[in-house]
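Checked the freezer inventory, then went back to the computational side. Two predictions to log before the end of the day. The first one is the construct we discussed on Monday; recording sequence and tokens without edits.
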Amino acid sequence: MKVTEHIKNAKETLFSFEILPPLKGKSIQSIYDGIDPLMEFNPKFVNVTYHREEFIYKERDNGLLEKIAIRKRPGTVGICAAIMNKYHVDAVPHLICGGFSKEETENALIDLQFLGIDNVLALRGDSIKTENTFRPHHEGHSFAVDLTHQISEMNRGNYMMDDVQLEPTDFCIGTAGYPEKHFEAMNLATDLKYLKDKINAGAQYIVTQMFFDNSKFFTFVDECRKIGIDVPIIPGIKPLKTLTHISFLPKFFKIDYPIELSTELLKCKDNKAVEQLGIEWGIHQSKELKSANVPCIHYYTMSNSSQVKSIASEVF
């Protein structure tokens, strides 16, 4: 079932979460171990991230450097199929621009349709570690709006392989939103413009980046509505877990902590204290969001479900 159909049929705020594919060498059981504790909260869908290949440079015998592609995590498509087969819950694969040609994207979507996967989250993706800025595949998409457009065209039966008659796909397309703006956007107004472009291209719902100040989410929703974005907007929540998160998350994701939270974080002396505060703040955020009748609360678990289970037990 499509994410938008789940939301339309719901009588109260839904619960969903996101997982990472395991590192290469780990079995599918490592995925199940992260999902099992959360099934009691009746998630309607589970997002599965995609991690593009990275590159290393290896010196050859002649002294020249050889660029070698490595992939540390298995493919998202297979993991989604396994989740749907075991749990009978909808899986939402992430599709990214980086590292893929348009033809490879089309082939992936054909595979997803064959497996009965109804939803995709269309993202630009991040730059790889060896690049300072995002560089698209030379035959791929530079922006999420272009990827969204390709998926929408396939939903209309328009494929790159125009010499072959194929049935139209029927994907529900999600996209990302940034309550505190994307770090590359000039300001929130331009970021909202780009978001509306993605909606106009065919995106049917929005999942936000993590945030810790609910007032910024509510303002973001209001601003979206003012410019005619009327699709469901799902808040994304990530519990703080370690001392490194205190500085890393604001630096990497360009987000702010509210004063009340930062005051308590400064008192934390170890990871255990941060983890407990992360649970308490997650409960506080979730209860306020649920009381505001958000369509769904989406949790970024990083494949570690213990904190999210503690939060959900108090909220759902």
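The second is the one RB wanted added to the comparison set:
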Amino acid sequence: MKILCISDATDTLIYSSVAPELYRDVDFVISAGDLPLRYYDYIQTMIRKDVWWVYGNHNLEDFDRMLGKGITSTDVLGGFSGMGGAGAMPSFGGFFLDGKCLYDKKHDLIIAGLGGSMLYNNGQSQYSEKQMQKRINKLIPRLIYNKKRYGRALDILVTHAPPRGMGDGEDLCHKGFECFLQFMEKYRPKYLLHGHVHLDDINAPRLSEYCDTKVINIYKNYILEDDTLGKG
């Protein structure tokens, strides 16, 4: 499986005319947030792949509406939604993951999303440690169901902020969540994909591991390739 992962900054390569050919073999796109919705619309239109996304702590257009609507945690999805297809958002055919856990039947993949950053100025899409834990708690019934039905709770967790102590910052805005560490200990996703911490040095490390989970900072543009994904 090949996934185009994006977060926090638009990429001139994706905006270029070669993008349809360059990314023709990706299965779908995952965004960890802080990108405008029109960027997702452009990507989906150009390369004809689904975009799975969460909010960051910036670029929060339609935030209130989206957190109150969208796909429920019990939905099973089939693949490319198309414009206005089942589970699609009004502005483009992406899948909104924030606070949800979804099963992609086409790829046999379980994906959950927990967007937002640590609470630092009482803005939208910001959460205290306790508030983020409450968001996790709402996913637990679905994770238990997944374990019984599919043999694993989750394949990919998409967050905006990193786990605490794993590439995060010391300032409150960029501090990671302790509860993400506990989540990985208990539910063992193969991947936790996050953004929020900008990697302006192209040689800066992106990948770390915790328990059975590979934690990857997908800032700007990252290609995830894993032949074991989608095989249970």
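For RB: The domain at 2-225 is CATH 3.60.21.10 (Purple Acid Phosphatase; chain A, domain 2). The chain has one domain: 2-225. Let me know if you want it refolded.
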